[in-house]
Design goal:
- The complex is a heterodimer.
- Chain A is an all-alpha fold.
- Chain A contains 14 helices and no strands.
- In chain A, helix 1 crosses helix 13.
- The radius of gyration of chain A is 23 Å and the shape is globular.
- By secondary structure, chain B is mainly alpha-helical.
- Helix content of chain B is about 80%, strand content about 0%.
- Chain B has 14 helices and no strands.
- In chain B, helix 3 crosses helix 14 and helix 4 runs antiparallel to helix 11.
- Chain B starts with 5 loop residues before the first helix and ends in a 5-residue tail after the last helix.
- Classes of the chains: A mainly alpha, B mainly alpha.
- At the A-B interface, helix 1, helix 4, helix 5, helix 6 and helix 7 of A face helix 2, helix 5, helix 6, helix 7 and helix 8 of B.
Protein backbone atom coordinates (compact mmCIF):
# COMPACT_ATOMS: atom_id res chain seq x y z
CA UNK A 1 0.00 0.00 0.00
CA UNK A 2 2.79 2.38 0.95
CA UNK A 3 4.62 1.43 -2.24
CA UNK A 4 1.51 2.21 -4.31
CA UNK A 5 0.92 5.61 -2.77
CA UNK A 6 4.56 6.55 -3.35
CA UNK A 7 4.21 5.76 -7.06
CA UNK A 8 1.01 7.81 -7.22
CA UNK A 9 2.72 10.82 -5.64
CA UNK A 10 5.64 10.54 -8.08
CA UNK A 11 3.27 10.38 -11.05
CA UNK A 12 1.35 13.39 -9.80
CA UNK A 13 4.61 15.31 -9.57
CA UNK A 14 5.64 14.27 -13.07
CA UNK A 15 2.61 15.87 -14.76
CA UNK A 16 3.30 19.52 -13.82
CA UNK A 17 7.03 19.00 -14.46
CA UNK A 18 6.33 17.80 -18.00
CA UNK A 19 3.77 20.52 -18.72
CA UNK A 20 6.16 23.21 -17.47
CA UNK A 21 9.04 21.93 -19.61
CA UNK A 22 7.17 21.15 -22.79
CA UNK A 23 4.46 23.79 -23.29
CA UNK A 24 6.70 26.51 -24.80
CA UNK A 25 8.36 23.89 -27.01
CA UNK A 26 5.03 22.43 -28.09
CA UNK A 27 3.93 25.99 -28.90
CA UNK A 28 6.86 26.34 -31.33
CA UNK A 29 5.90 23.07 -32.99
CA UNK A 30 2.23 24.09 -33.14
CA UNK A 31 3.02 27.37 -34.90
CA UNK A 32 5.39 25.77 -37.36
CA UNK A 33 2.65 23.47 -38.71
CA UNK A 34 -0.05 26.17 -38.71
CA UNK A 35 -1.10 28.79 -41.21
CA UNK A 36 -0.89 32.36 -39.99
CA UNK A 37 -4.66 32.60 -39.39
CA UNK A 38 -4.74 29.38 -37.43
CA UNK A 39 -1.67 30.36 -35.38
CA UNK A 40 -3.16 33.72 -34.42
CA UNK A 41 -6.52 32.20 -33.41
CA UNK A 42 -5.08 30.68 -30.22
CA UNK A 43 -6.04 27.14 -31.27
CA UNK A 44 -4.32 24.26 -29.48
CA UNK A 45 -4.14 22.19 -32.67
CA UNK A 46 -4.44 23.54 -36.25
CA UNK A 47 -7.54 22.59 -38.31
CA UNK A 48 -5.35 21.65 -41.23
CA UNK A 49 -1.74 20.92 -40.26
CA UNK A 50 0.58 22.06 -43.03
CA UNK A 51 4.22 21.83 -44.00
CA UNK A 52 4.01 24.95 -46.16
CA UNK A 53 6.13 26.92 -43.66
CA UNK A 54 9.05 24.54 -44.09
CA UNK A 55 8.73 24.74 -47.89
CA UNK A 56 8.84 28.51 -47.69
CA UNK A 57 11.99 28.29 -45.58
CA UNK A 58 13.76 25.80 -47.81
CA UNK A 59 13.02 27.89 -50.90
CA UNK A 60 13.84 31.14 -49.06
CA UNK A 61 10.51 32.60 -50.21
CA UNK A 62 10.17 35.34 -47.67
CA UNK A 63 11.79 38.69 -47.07
CA UNK A 64 13.29 37.53 -43.74
CA UNK A 65 14.45 34.24 -45.20
CA UNK A 66 16.32 35.33 -48.33
CA UNK A 67 19.63 34.20 -46.83
CA UNK A 68 18.42 31.22 -44.82
CA UNK A 69 20.86 28.66 -46.20
CA UNK A 70 23.93 30.86 -45.87
CA UNK A 71 22.87 31.81 -42.34
CA UNK A 72 22.45 28.21 -41.19
CA UNK A 73 25.83 27.49 -42.81
CA UNK A 74 27.34 30.36 -40.80
CA UNK A 75 25.88 28.91 -37.60
CA UNK A 76 27.32 25.50 -38.40
CA UNK A 77 30.73 26.86 -39.42
CA UNK A 78 31.02 28.93 -36.26
CA UNK A 79 29.86 26.13 -33.97
CA UNK A 80 32.26 23.57 -35.43
CA UNK A 81 35.20 25.97 -35.45
CA UNK A 82 34.51 27.10 -31.89
CA UNK A 83 34.19 23.48 -30.73
CA UNK A 84 37.44 22.42 -32.42
CA UNK A 85 39.51 25.40 -31.27
CA UNK A 86 38.18 25.15 -27.71
CA UNK A 87 39.12 21.46 -27.61
CA UNK A 88 42.60 22.25 -28.87
CA UNK A 89 43.21 25.15 -26.47
CA UNK A 90 41.71 23.41 -23.44
CA UNK A 91 43.27 19.98 -23.89
CA UNK A 92 46.72 21.52 -24.40
CA UNK A 93 46.29 23.68 -21.30
CA UNK A 94 44.94 20.83 -19.17
CA UNK A 95 47.84 18.60 -20.28
CA UNK A 96 50.42 21.27 -19.53
CA UNK A 97 48.99 22.05 -16.10
CA UNK A 98 47.96 18.61 -14.93
CA UNK A 99 50.58 16.29 -16.48
CA UNK A 100 53.63 18.41 -17.23
CA UNK A 101 53.10 20.41 -14.01
CA UNK A 102 54.24 23.55 -15.73
CA UNK A 103 55.30 26.37 -13.41
CA UNK A 104 52.55 28.98 -13.20
CA UNK A 105 49.90 26.36 -13.91
CA UNK A 106 47.91 27.37 -10.86
CA UNK A 107 47.92 30.98 -11.98
CA UNK A 108 46.57 29.97 -15.37
CA UNK A 109 43.82 27.94 -13.67
CA UNK A 110 42.91 30.98 -11.61
CA UNK A 111 42.81 33.21 -14.69
CA UNK A 112 40.50 30.71 -16.37
CA UNK A 113 38.27 30.54 -13.29
CA UNK A 114 38.17 34.32 -13.14
CA UNK A 115 37.03 34.45 -16.78
CA UNK A 116 34.43 31.78 -16.07
CA UNK A 117 32.90 33.99 -13.38
CA UNK A 118 32.53 37.14 -15.48
CA UNK A 119 28.84 37.57 -16.38
CA UNK A 120 28.59 36.98 -20.14
CA UNK A 121 26.74 40.19 -21.00
CA UNK A 122 29.33 42.23 -19.11
CA UNK A 123 32.28 40.81 -21.00
CA UNK A 124 30.39 41.35 -24.26
CA UNK A 125 30.72 45.13 -24.06
CA UNK A 126 34.53 45.44 -23.81
CA UNK A 127 34.93 42.48 -26.16
CA UNK A 128 32.82 44.23 -28.79
CA UNK A 129 35.10 47.25 -28.48
CA UNK A 130 38.25 45.11 -28.70
CA UNK A 131 37.01 43.17 -31.74
CA UNK A 132 36.47 46.53 -33.43
CA UNK A 133 40.06 47.49 -32.72
CA UNK A 134 41.36 44.15 -34.02
CA UNK A 135 39.37 44.77 -37.20
CA UNK A 136 37.45 41.53 -36.75
CA UNK A 137 33.92 42.95 -36.44
CA UNK A 138 31.47 41.39 -38.86
CA UNK A 139 33.71 38.42 -39.65
CA UNK A 140 32.76 34.93 -38.53
CA UNK A 141 36.16 34.57 -36.86
CA UNK A 142 35.25 37.23 -34.29
CA UNK A 143 32.35 35.16 -33.01
CA UNK A 144 34.45 31.97 -33.07
CA UNK A 145 37.15 33.61 -30.95
CA UNK A 146 34.59 35.10 -28.58
CA UNK A 147 33.00 31.68 -28.08
CA UNK A 148 36.41 30.07 -27.52
CA UNK A 149 37.06 32.70 -24.84
CA UNK A 150 33.75 31.89 -23.14
CA UNK A 151 33.97 28.11 -23.46
CA UNK A 152 37.61 27.37 -22.69
CA UNK A 153 37.64 28.22 -18.95
CA UNK A 154 35.03 25.59 -18.15
CA UNK A 155 36.62 23.24 -20.68
CA UNK A 156 40.04 23.57 -19.00
CA UNK A 157 38.47 23.12 -15.57
CA UNK A 158 36.66 19.90 -16.54
CA UNK A 159 39.57 18.46 -18.52
CA UNK A 160 42.03 19.20 -15.72
CA UNK A 161 39.77 17.48 -13.18
CA UNK A 162 39.57 14.47 -15.50
CA UNK A 163 43.29 14.31 -16.26
CA UNK A 164 44.23 14.59 -12.58
CA UNK A 165 42.49 11.24 -12.18
CA UNK A 166 44.69 9.45 -14.73
CA UNK A 167 47.38 7.36 -13.00
CA UNK A 168 50.72 9.14 -12.92
CA UNK A 169 52.57 5.85 -13.54
CA UNK A 170 51.52 6.12 -17.18
CA UNK A 171 53.62 9.23 -17.61
CA UNK A 172 56.53 7.67 -15.77
CA UNK A 173 56.41 4.59 -17.97
CA UNK A 174 56.31 6.72 -21.10
CA UNK A 175 59.24 8.81 -19.87
CA UNK A 176 61.33 5.73 -19.14
CA UNK A 177 60.58 4.48 -22.66
CA UNK A 178 61.99 7.80 -23.86
CA UNK A 179 58.75 9.36 -25.07
CA UNK A 180 58.80 13.09 -25.76
CA UNK A 181 56.08 15.23 -24.15
CA UNK A 182 54.38 15.51 -27.51
CA UNK A 183 54.30 11.73 -27.94
CA UNK A 184 52.94 11.35 -24.44
CA UNK A 185 50.22 13.85 -25.31
CA UNK A 186 49.26 12.26 -28.62
CA UNK A 187 49.67 8.58 -27.90
CA UNK A 188 48.82 8.24 -24.20
CA UNK A 189 46.94 11.27 -22.97
CA UNK A 190 44.47 12.05 -25.76
CA UNK A 191 43.17 8.47 -26.21
CA UNK A 192 42.46 8.24 -22.47
CA UNK A 193 40.67 11.58 -22.43
CA UNK A 194 38.20 10.79 -25.22
CA UNK A 195 35.04 10.66 -23.04
CA UNK A 196 35.73 14.06 -21.43
CA UNK A 197 36.76 15.52 -24.78
CA UNK A 198 33.47 14.42 -26.34
CA UNK A 199 31.59 16.15 -23.51
CA UNK A 200 33.64 19.32 -23.80
CA UNK A 201 33.54 19.45 -27.59
CA UNK A 202 29.76 19.10 -27.51
CA UNK A 203 29.52 21.73 -24.80
CA UNK A 204 31.49 24.29 -26.81
CA UNK A 205 29.70 23.42 -30.05
CA UNK A 206 26.25 23.88 -28.49
CA UNK A 207 27.32 27.06 -26.69
CA UNK A 208 28.40 28.61 -30.00
CA UNK A 209 25.41 27.35 -32.00
CA UNK A 210 22.95 28.65 -29.40
CA UNK A 211 24.65 32.00 -28.76
CA UNK A 212 22.56 35.07 -29.42
CA UNK A 213 24.03 38.13 -27.66
CA UNK A 214 27.60 37.93 -28.96
CA UNK A 215 26.41 37.06 -32.46
CA UNK A 216 24.03 40.01 -32.39
CA UNK A 217 26.81 42.39 -31.34
CA UNK A 218 29.68 41.10 -33.45
CA UNK A 219 27.94 40.29 -36.73
CA UNK A 220 25.58 42.56 -38.59
CA UNK A 221 25.73 41.96 -42.34
CA UNK A 222 22.85 39.72 -43.44
CA UNK A 223 25.26 37.34 -45.16
CA UNK A 224 27.58 36.96 -42.15
CA UNK A 225 24.99 36.66 -39.35
CA UNK A 226 24.05 33.36 -37.78
CA UNK A 227 20.54 31.96 -37.81
CA UNK A 228 20.02 33.20 -34.23
CA UNK A 229 20.56 36.82 -35.26
CA UNK A 230 18.37 36.35 -38.34
CA UNK A 231 15.58 35.08 -36.07
CA UNK A 232 15.96 38.22 -34.00
CA UNK A 233 15.28 40.35 -37.09
CA UNK A 234 11.88 38.71 -37.59
CA UNK A 235 10.07 40.75 -35.00
CA UNK A 236 11.37 44.14 -36.04
CA UNK A 237 8.06 44.73 -37.88
CA UNK A 238 4.54 44.86 -36.43
CA UNK A 239 3.03 42.19 -38.67
CA UNK A 240 5.76 39.64 -38.10
CA UNK A 241 5.26 36.25 -39.73
CA UNK A 242 5.28 34.38 -36.41
CA UNK A 243 4.44 31.04 -38.01
CA UNK A 244 7.58 31.28 -40.18
CA UNK A 245 9.62 32.53 -37.23
CA UNK A 246 8.60 29.49 -35.19
CA UNK A 247 9.18 27.06 -38.07
CA UNK A 248 12.67 28.50 -38.59
CA UNK A 249 13.18 28.36 -34.83
CA UNK A 250 12.27 24.69 -34.85
CA UNK A 251 14.77 23.98 -37.63
CA UNK A 252 17.36 25.90 -35.61
CA UNK A 253 16.58 24.09 -32.34
CA UNK A 254 16.56 20.55 -33.71
CA UNK A 255 20.31 20.01 -34.29
CA UNK A 256 21.38 20.99 -30.75
CA UNK A 257 18.57 18.91 -29.24
CA UNK A 258 19.62 15.90 -31.35
CA UNK A 259 23.33 16.31 -30.57
CA UNK A 260 22.56 16.77 -26.91
CA UNK A 261 20.54 13.56 -26.73
CA UNK A 262 23.09 11.61 -28.73
CA UNK A 263 25.85 12.55 -26.28
CA UNK A 264 23.84 13.05 -23.10
CA UNK A 265 25.64 10.27 -21.22
CA UNK A 266 28.99 11.95 -21.77
CA UNK A 267 27.53 15.40 -21.21
CA UNK A 268 25.81 14.80 -17.89
CA UNK A 269 28.59 12.84 -16.22
CA UNK A 270 31.40 14.83 -17.87
CA UNK A 271 30.02 18.25 -17.10
CA UNK A 272 28.71 17.72 -13.58
CA UNK A 273 31.60 15.71 -12.12
CA UNK A 274 33.76 18.81 -11.72
CA UNK A 275 30.98 20.77 -10.12
CA UNK A 276 30.18 18.33 -7.37
CA UNK A 277 33.78 18.06 -6.25
CA UNK A 278 33.37 21.47 -4.70
CA UNK B 1 76.22 13.45 -26.77
CA UNK B 2 78.58 10.52 -27.18
CA UNK B 3 81.43 12.65 -25.88
CA UNK B 4 79.91 12.99 -22.43
CA UNK B 5 82.04 11.13 -19.87
CA UNK B 6 80.56 7.95 -18.45
CA UNK B 7 80.21 9.37 -14.95
CA UNK B 8 77.72 11.97 -16.08
CA UNK B 9 75.78 9.47 -18.17
CA UNK B 10 75.31 7.24 -15.14
CA UNK B 11 73.59 10.03 -13.23
CA UNK B 12 69.84 10.14 -13.84
CA UNK B 13 69.23 12.60 -16.70
CA UNK B 14 66.52 14.38 -14.69
CA UNK B 15 67.52 18.04 -15.20
CA UNK B 16 67.48 17.64 -18.97
CA UNK B 17 64.05 15.99 -18.86
CA UNK B 18 62.76 18.54 -16.40
CA UNK B 19 63.68 21.47 -18.57
CA UNK B 20 62.42 19.84 -21.76
CA UNK B 21 59.10 19.03 -20.05
CA UNK B 22 58.85 22.52 -18.62
CA UNK B 23 59.43 24.02 -22.07
CA UNK B 24 56.67 21.86 -23.50
CA UNK B 25 54.44 22.81 -20.59
CA UNK B 26 54.87 26.46 -21.47
CA UNK B 27 54.11 25.74 -25.13
CA UNK B 28 51.01 23.81 -24.11
CA UNK B 29 49.49 26.56 -21.97
CA UNK B 30 50.47 29.31 -24.44
CA UNK B 31 47.30 29.11 -26.61
CA UNK B 32 45.02 29.70 -23.63
CA UNK B 33 47.24 32.44 -22.23
CA UNK B 34 47.07 34.20 -25.61
CA UNK B 35 43.27 33.89 -25.70
CA UNK B 36 43.10 35.30 -22.18
CA UNK B 37 45.39 38.24 -22.95
CA UNK B 38 43.73 39.19 -26.23
CA UNK B 39 40.06 38.64 -25.39
CA UNK B 40 39.79 39.08 -21.62
CA UNK B 41 42.64 41.07 -20.10
CA UNK B 42 43.09 43.65 -22.85
CA UNK B 43 39.36 44.30 -23.46
CA UNK B 44 38.57 44.51 -19.74
CA UNK B 45 41.46 46.89 -19.00
CA UNK B 46 40.60 49.01 -22.00
CA UNK B 47 36.95 49.05 -20.99
CA UNK B 48 37.78 50.13 -17.45
CA UNK B 49 40.02 52.84 -18.86
CA UNK B 50 37.10 54.08 -20.96
CA UNK B 51 34.97 54.25 -17.83
CA UNK B 52 37.42 56.48 -15.93
CA UNK B 53 35.61 59.83 -16.37
CA UNK B 54 33.36 60.94 -13.51
CA UNK B 55 31.08 62.65 -16.07
CA UNK B 56 30.03 59.23 -17.39
CA UNK B 57 28.62 58.38 -13.98
CA UNK B 58 26.90 61.73 -13.66
CA UNK B 59 25.25 61.11 -17.03
CA UNK B 60 24.38 57.54 -16.09
CA UNK B 61 22.76 58.49 -12.77
CA UNK B 62 20.85 61.25 -14.55
CA UNK B 63 19.32 58.72 -16.94
CA UNK B 64 15.76 58.28 -15.63
CA UNK B 65 15.75 54.55 -16.34
CA UNK B 66 18.96 53.81 -14.42
CA UNK B 67 17.50 53.68 -10.92
CA UNK B 68 14.60 51.51 -12.05
CA UNK B 69 17.12 49.19 -13.74
CA UNK B 70 19.13 48.75 -10.55
CA UNK B 71 15.97 47.90 -8.58
CA UNK B 72 14.89 45.44 -11.30
CA UNK B 73 18.31 43.78 -11.24
CA UNK B 74 18.30 43.33 -7.48
CA UNK B 75 14.76 41.92 -7.53
CA UNK B 76 15.70 39.63 -10.42
CA UNK B 77 18.77 38.28 -8.62
CA UNK B 78 17.22 37.81 -5.20
CA UNK B 79 13.80 36.51 -6.20
CA UNK B 80 14.42 34.55 -9.40
CA UNK B 81 17.62 32.81 -8.28
CA UNK B 82 16.23 31.77 -4.91
CA UNK B 83 12.95 30.48 -6.34
CA UNK B 84 14.95 28.62 -8.98
CA UNK B 85 17.11 26.92 -6.36
CA UNK B 86 14.19 25.94 -4.12
CA UNK B 87 12.58 24.38 -7.21
CA UNK B 88 15.84 22.68 -8.20
CA UNK B 89 16.27 21.30 -4.68
CA UNK B 90 12.75 19.90 -4.72
CA UNK B 91 13.01 18.52 -8.27
CA UNK B 92 16.37 16.88 -7.59
CA UNK B 93 14.57 14.93 -4.85
CA UNK B 94 12.07 13.77 -7.46
CA UNK B 95 14.65 12.77 -10.08
CA UNK B 96 16.84 10.66 -7.77
CA UNK B 97 14.12 8.02 -7.59
CA UNK B 98 15.31 5.08 -9.65
CA UNK B 99 12.56 4.32 -12.15
CA UNK B 100 12.84 3.85 -15.89
CA UNK B 101 9.98 6.28 -16.56
CA UNK B 102 11.54 8.96 -14.35
CA UNK B 103 14.66 8.67 -16.48
CA UNK B 104 12.49 9.50 -19.51
CA UNK B 105 10.87 12.41 -17.69
CA UNK B 106 14.36 13.74 -16.93
CA UNK B 107 15.27 13.48 -20.62
CA UNK B 108 12.30 15.71 -21.52
CA UNK B 109 12.89 17.97 -18.52
CA UNK B 110 16.35 18.84 -19.84
CA UNK B 111 15.00 20.10 -23.18
CA UNK B 112 14.63 23.78 -22.17
CA UNK B 113 18.33 23.81 -21.32
CA UNK B 114 19.47 22.01 -24.48
CA UNK B 115 17.59 24.05 -27.08
CA UNK B 116 18.59 27.62 -28.01
CA UNK B 117 17.01 30.55 -26.16
CA UNK B 118 15.76 32.57 -29.06
CA UNK B 119 12.94 30.35 -30.42
CA UNK B 120 11.74 29.29 -26.98
CA UNK B 121 11.73 32.79 -25.50
CA UNK B 122 9.90 34.15 -28.56
CA UNK B 123 7.46 31.30 -28.15
CA UNK B 124 6.76 32.35 -24.55
CA UNK B 125 6.51 35.94 -25.75
CA UNK B 126 3.78 35.10 -28.22
CA UNK B 127 1.91 32.89 -25.74
CA UNK B 128 1.45 36.01 -23.61
CA UNK B 129 0.48 38.28 -26.49
CA UNK B 130 -2.65 40.03 -25.13
CA UNK B 131 -4.60 39.85 -28.41
CA UNK B 132 -3.58 36.64 -30.15
CA UNK B 133 -1.69 34.67 -27.53
CA UNK B 134 -2.91 31.29 -26.39
CA UNK B 135 -2.93 32.29 -22.70
CA UNK B 136 -5.45 35.08 -23.08
CA UNK B 137 -7.45 33.01 -25.56
CA UNK B 138 -7.85 30.31 -22.89
CA UNK B 139 -8.66 32.91 -20.22
CA UNK B 140 -11.35 34.33 -22.52
CA UNK B 141 -12.86 30.91 -23.22
CA UNK B 142 -13.02 30.08 -19.52
CA UNK B 143 -14.13 33.41 -18.04
CA UNK B 144 -15.46 35.40 -21.02
CA UNK B 145 -13.21 38.25 -19.84
CA UNK B 146 -10.12 39.72 -21.40
CA UNK B 147 -6.93 38.56 -19.71
CA UNK B 148 -4.23 40.89 -18.38
CA UNK B 149 -1.95 42.91 -20.62
CA UNK B 150 1.00 40.69 -19.62
CA UNK B 151 4.17 42.02 -21.24
CA UNK B 152 2.79 45.53 -21.64
CA UNK B 153 2.68 45.84 -17.86
CA UNK B 154 6.18 46.49 -16.46
CA UNK B 155 5.65 44.50 -13.25
CA UNK B 156 4.16 41.45 -14.96
CA UNK B 157 6.73 41.80 -17.75
CA UNK B 158 9.63 41.60 -15.30
CA UNK B 159 7.90 38.73 -13.50
CA UNK B 160 7.55 36.80 -16.75
CA UNK B 161 11.20 37.51 -17.60
CA UNK B 162 12.09 35.87 -14.27
CA UNK B 163 9.84 32.90 -15.07
CA UNK B 164 11.55 32.60 -18.46
CA UNK B 165 14.97 32.73 -16.82
CA UNK B 166 13.94 30.00 -14.37
CA UNK B 167 12.43 27.90 -17.16
CA UNK B 168 15.65 28.06 -19.13
CA UNK B 169 18.26 27.45 -16.42
CA UNK B 170 16.37 25.24 -13.95
CA UNK B 171 17.36 21.96 -15.66
CA UNK B 172 21.08 22.69 -15.38
CA UNK B 173 20.99 23.45 -11.65
CA UNK B 174 18.67 20.52 -10.98
CA UNK B 175 21.27 18.33 -12.67
CA UNK B 176 23.99 19.69 -10.38
CA UNK B 177 21.91 19.08 -7.26
CA UNK B 178 20.97 15.57 -8.49
CA UNK B 179 24.69 14.82 -8.82
CA UNK B 180 25.16 16.20 -5.30
CA UNK B 181 22.40 13.98 -3.91
CA UNK B 182 23.78 10.92 -5.72
CA UNK B 183 27.13 11.34 -3.99
CA UNK B 184 25.54 10.92 -0.54
CA UNK B 185 26.21 7.33 0.62
CA UNK B 186 23.05 5.23 0.57
CA UNK B 187 23.91 3.63 3.94
CA UNK B 188 23.17 6.94 5.65
CA UNK B 189 19.56 6.80 4.46
CA UNK B 190 19.28 3.13 5.39
CA UNK B 191 20.56 3.88 8.88
CA UNK B 192 18.07 6.75 9.17
CA UNK B 193 15.25 4.42 8.08
CA UNK B 194 16.23 1.87 10.70
CA UNK B 195 16.05 4.62 13.29
CA UNK B 196 12.53 5.40 12.08
CA UNK B 197 13.26 8.80 10.53
CA UNK B 198 10.46 10.46 8.56
CA UNK B 199 10.99 11.77 5.02
CA UNK B 200 11.43 15.28 6.36
CA UNK B 201 13.91 14.15 9.00
CA UNK B 202 15.92 12.29 6.36
CA UNK B 203 16.08 15.47 4.34
CA UNK B 204 16.85 17.64 7.35
CA UNK B 205 19.53 15.46 8.93
CA UNK B 206 21.02 13.46 6.05
CA UNK B 207 20.48 15.25 2.72
CA UNK B 208 20.75 18.89 3.72
CA UNK B 209 24.02 18.73 5.73
CA UNK B 210 25.77 17.08 2.75
CA UNK B 211 24.17 19.30 0.15
CA UNK B 212 24.45 22.64 1.93
CA UNK B 213 27.86 23.72 0.61
CA UNK B 214 27.02 22.77 -2.96
CA UNK B 215 23.65 24.51 -2.68
CA UNK B 216 25.21 27.72 -1.40
CA UNK B 217 28.05 27.88 -3.91
CA UNK B 218 25.70 27.02 -6.79
CA UNK B 219 23.34 29.80 -5.70
CA UNK B 220 26.18 32.30 -5.68
CA UNK B 221 27.50 31.17 -9.06
CA UNK B 222 24.00 31.37 -10.49
CA UNK B 223 23.60 34.90 -9.13
CA UNK B 224 26.78 35.97 -10.95
CA UNK B 225 25.61 34.43 -14.20
CA UNK B 226 22.07 35.74 -13.84
CA UNK B 227 23.54 39.22 -13.71
CA UNK B 228 24.78 38.54 -17.24
CA UNK B 229 21.47 37.09 -18.46
CA UNK B 230 20.63 39.29 -21.41
CA UNK B 231 18.31 36.96 -23.32
CA UNK B 232 15.52 36.41 -20.79
CA UNK B 233 14.78 40.12 -20.58
CA UNK B 234 15.77 41.38 -24.02
CA UNK B 235 14.05 38.70 -26.08
CA UNK B 236 10.90 38.74 -23.95
CA UNK B 237 10.20 42.41 -23.28
CA UNK B 238 13.04 44.20 -25.10
CA UNK B 239 13.36 46.27 -21.91
CA UNK B 240 9.92 47.73 -22.52
CA UNK B 241 7.30 48.97 -21.99
CA UNK B 242 8.90 52.43 -21.77
CA UNK B 243 12.32 50.94 -20.79
CA UNK B 244 10.88 49.92 -17.42
CA UNK B 245 11.93 46.25 -17.39
CA UNK B 246 15.66 46.68 -18.11
CA UNK B 247 18.29 44.94 -16.02
CA UNK B 248 21.94 46.02 -15.96
CA UNK B 249 22.87 43.54 -18.72
CA UNK B 250 20.29 44.85 -21.19
CA UNK B 251 20.94 48.47 -20.22
CA UNK B 252 24.65 48.09 -20.96
CA UNK B 253 23.95 46.58 -24.38
CA UNK B 254 21.38 49.31 -25.04
CA UNK B 255 24.09 51.95 -24.53
CA UNK B 256 26.38 50.05 -26.90
CA UNK B 257 23.72 50.14 -29.59
CA UNK B 258 23.35 53.88 -28.97
CA UNK B 259 27.13 54.14 -29.41
CA UNK B 260 27.69 55.33 -25.83
CA UNK B 261 30.45 52.97 -24.85
CA UNK B 262 31.50 55.04 -21.84
CA UNK B 263 27.99 54.74 -20.37
CA UNK B 264 27.92 51.02 -21.14
CA UNK B 265 31.18 50.52 -19.27
CA UNK B 266 30.02 52.78 -16.43
CA UNK B 267 26.95 50.52 -16.06
CA UNK B 268 29.24 47.54 -15.62
CA UNK B 269 31.46 49.38 -13.15
CA UNK B 270 28.34 50.13 -11.09
CA UNK B 271 27.64 46.40 -10.94
CA UNK B 272 31.15 45.55 -9.74
CA UNK B 273 30.36 46.10 -6.03
CA UNK B 274 27.74 43.33 -6.41
CA UNK B 275 29.86 40.98 -8.48
CA UNK B 276 33.36 41.21 -7.08
CA UNK B 277 32.56 39.89 -3.58
CA UNK B 278 30.64 36.99 -5.14
CA UNK B 279 33.48 36.28 -7.57
CA UNK B 280 36.00 36.47 -4.74
CA UNK B 281 33.98 33.97 -2.72
CA UNK B 282 33.78 31.56 -5.67
CA UNK B 283 37.49 31.87 -6.49
CA UNK B 284 38.44 31.09 -2.90
CA UNK B 285 35.94 28.29 -2.74
CA UNK B 286 36.95 26.54 -5.98
CA UNK B 287 40.71 27.03 -6.01
CA UNK B 288 41.27 25.42 -2.62
CA UNK B 289 44.20 23.05 -2.95
CA UNK B 290 42.14 20.09 -1.66
CA UNK B 291 40.46 19.38 -5.05
Amino acid sequence: MKKFSEEAVLLLMAIPILLWSLIPIYHIFLFSISTKDSAFSGALWPDKPTFRNFETIAQQHHFYLHHFWIQIWNSLWIAVAAGAITLFVASCAAFGISRLKVRGGRTVMNLALFTYFIPAAFLAIPMYKAMGMYGLLNSRMSLVLAMVTLASPYAIWVLKQASDKLPYELDEAARIDGATPLQLFRLVYLPLMVPSMVAIGTYALLLAWNEYLYAYLLLSHERTVTLAVALGHFISADDSPWELLMATGLVYALPPAAIYYAFRRYMVSGLTSGAVKA
Amino acid sequence: MAAIPGGVLAAPPRPFFQSQWQTWGVIMIAPYVLVFLAFVLYPVSYGLWLARHPESYVKLFADPIFFRTVVNTVVFLVVAVNIKFLMALWLSGFFVHERVWIRWVSVLFLLPWAVPSIPTIYSIRFMFNPEWGVVNSIIFKLTLQDGPNWLNDPRIGLGLAMVTHIWKSLPFWTLILIAGRMSIPREQYEAASVDGASTWQKFRFVTWPSLRTLYLSSTILSMIWTLGDFNSVYLLTGGGPADMTHVLATLGIRYIRLDQVDLAMATIVCALPFVLPLMYYMMKHLSRPSQ
